[in-house]
Amino acid sequence: MAFLNNILGLDIGSHSLKAVEFRQTLRGFEAVAMRSLPRAGSDVSLAELVQHFIRMHRLSTDHAVCALPGDRLSTRRLNFPFRDRKRLSQVIPFEVDNDTLFDLDDVLVDWEMVGGDRSHAEVVAAIANRADVSELLGMLREAQSEPRTVEAEGLVLCHLSNLFDLAGTRLLIDLGHRKTTCCLIAEGQPVASRTFPIAGSAITEALARDRALGSEDAERAKCEDGVFGAGMQQTLPATRATLDRIAREIIRTLGSLEPQIAKFESGPVQELTLFGGTAQLDGLDEYLATTTGISAQKLGAPTQDYGKALTTHTDAIVFAPAIALAMRGTAQAKTRMDFRQHEFAVRLDLGRYRRELSWPFGLAVAAVILGLVSVATSTGLQSRRARQMEEQIEQLYTEAFPGQALPENPLAALRQEIASATSRAEFLGVYRGNLSALDLLTEISKLVPKDLDVVFDELSIDRQIIRMRVYAKSFESADRLGAELAKFPPFAQARIGSIESDPKRGGKRFDVTISLAPPEGSV
Fold first, then answer.
1. What is the pLDDT, as a whole number, of residue 250?
2. Count of CB atoms within 10 A of residue 358's CB?
3. CB 48 within 8 A of CB 104
4. Which residue, 31, 86, 174, 311, is most buried by CB atoms nearer than 10 A?
5. What per-residue string of b and e applies to 302-331 under the rule 16 or more CB within 10 Å gives b?
6. Dihedrals φ, ψ of 154, to 5°?
7. Beta bridge pairs of residue 124
8. What three-state secondary structure class fits 7?
9. Degrees (nearest 5) of the Cα angle 151, 312, 215?
10. Contact 466, 440 (CB under 8 A)
């Protein structure tokens, strides 16, 4: 699917080409391939070599990430009394312009926030020559492997912390063939980077001078026999001097970063983590630990499952920069530097996306058409049912009111007639036994004996309840009234309420309640 492209980390080293490919999935990403191809002895152009490398291993270049070499970059550490990224993007180029001899028209500037607090930002700005970016993109375009992202070599190494155990404060050291790149990280987050031009090839040249060997023989001796001989003290003078220069540059790098290191909650640098082709030299980690006074270890095996499927311990040391570049292209990226800006910005191939989306688009159109047909069918059925109901209501109205003209809205007319009938029934009173309110009053009058001395102060009929307020001269009159009323079957549920004395008239007052509703369970 076009939305689940593979991600390729392409490390264009001076000694070999290395590539690591990940497949982005909805849950994360998984390892696909890890490949390398030596450059030494090749008589073809770099573009042809890259093209051959990509085609030979069938690597996906839809989302390739590469880096501009660190020794082709200039970096500046800047501080600002605000943290708004939009303002920083506007101000940083002018700060760089004031701080360097570069003409902004000749360079590209990108930056990464590496420290600060809520009201303060520490930024590392990387400055690249436009000509260098153009040359790199032109070569890769010729190789038909144009990258989506051109990172700044250095800080991008921090992405290794997503796959490897790199807790605490560490200096990551990529010991390559032509140069060495350092990246300071604190709890996996990038802080600073530096590149210096001393690495494996300088050691090979020194060994060639010490042992009077040709360059190829010296390279072979370095890889097979090592450079420390029987021990560090027996290292040959030119070779030892080159190794000492590498150690001094590492110490110099750490010294320049002491103000930043002092702020870390994780404390001072606990380890130098070594990788790159030159890091494979036997005894190099022990030598750097001795000369710098800081523990030095080669990069270990990955700790994440997808990393374990990709590399072994040895492979991780060699392919670490390519792994970091591939991680830069995933959703877990920690840095966002990219020199594909302005005239070098990625331009979408709309024709390609149109071709890739033609089939999904066709399915979407078909789904929309089916949805419209379904809606039209449903609407037609509902309209037909509504018409049938209207016809039934018209028939009911005609049967209920024969001879009357059919109104415009029969349903509303029926509701109005029912409400009118209900109102008339409530007014006239239709109660149990088909008795009207008048019938009930007549029955009450008949049931009360003439010799029973009672006076009806109040009488009301509310739905199926008759309520009376009665005055009598004695308790016996109240009891007798209840007994007389109960002789009439609809009044069988007559109840005499509480009897009170009437201080004005001297007799008794009481309430009589008669329920006309049939007893529960009766038919």
1. 97
2. 10
3. no
4. 174
5. beeebbeebbeeebbbbbbbbbbbbbbbbe
6. 135, -85
7. 77, 112
8. strand
9. 70
10. yes
Contacts of residue 132, Cβ cutoff 8 Å, sequence gap at least 6: 68, 72
Closest Cα partner for 311 from 55, 25, 69, 22? Answer: 22
Please report the pLDDT score of residue 386 as a whole number.
Answer: 79
The answer to whether 50 and 316 are in contact (CB under 8 A) is: no
Question: What pLDDT is attached to residue 523?
Answer: 43
> Is there a contact between 414 and 406 (Cβ–Cβ < 8 Å)?
no
In the block, tokens 């594909």 appear at 340
The predicted structure's pLDDT at residue 136: 96
- CB count within 10 Å of CB 79 equals 11
Contact predicate 205/219, CB 8 Å: no
Q: List, for residues 19-76, the tens digit of each pLDDT value.
A: 999 887 777 777 888 999 998 777 889 999 999 999 999 999 999 999 999 999 999 9
Phi-psi region of 211 (alpha: psi -120 to 50; beta: other; left: phi over 0): alpha
Q: How large is the angle between the packed helices 46-57 and 130-142, nearest 10 degrees?
A: 50
Cβ atoms < 10 Å from Cβ of 230:
7
Which residues on adjacent β-strands are paired with residue 509?
A: 471, 500
Residue 66 near residue 136 (C-beta atoms within 8 A): yes
Q: What is the CA radius of gyration of the chain?
A: 48
Measured between alpha carbons, how far is 482 from 351 in angstroms, rounded to an integer? Answer: 98
DSSP 96: H
Query: Strands 149-152, 64-68: parallel, antiparallel or unpaired by DSSP?
Result: parallel
Helices 350-400 and 410-428 meet at what angle, rounded to 10? Answer: 40
Beta bridge partner(s), residue 64: 8
Q: Crossing angle for the helix pair 237-256 and 284-292, nearest 10 degrees?
A: 60
Separation of first and last alpha carbons in the chain: 74
Distance CA 224, CA 346 (A): 44
Residue numbers of the chain with a pLDDT score lower than 50: 1-3, 523
Predicted pLDDT at 85: 92
d(CA 255, CA 294): 13
Q: Encoding tokens for residue 335? A: 């840095």
- Show the tokens assigned to 55: 């085609």
* 485 in Cβ contact with 515 (< 8 Å): no
Strands 16-24 and 454-462, bridge-based pairing: unpaired
Residue 343 exposed, middle or buried by CB count within 10 Å (0-12, 13-18, 19+): exposed
Summarize pLDDT for 348-370 with one digit per residue, the tens. 655 555 555 566 777 888 888 88
The amino acid sitting at 326 is A
Give 229-264 as a DSSP string.
Answer: TTSGGG--HHHHHHHHHHHHHHHHHHHHTHHHHTT-
Number of residues written out for the chain: 523
**pLDDT recorded at residue 377:** 85
Report pTM. 0.67
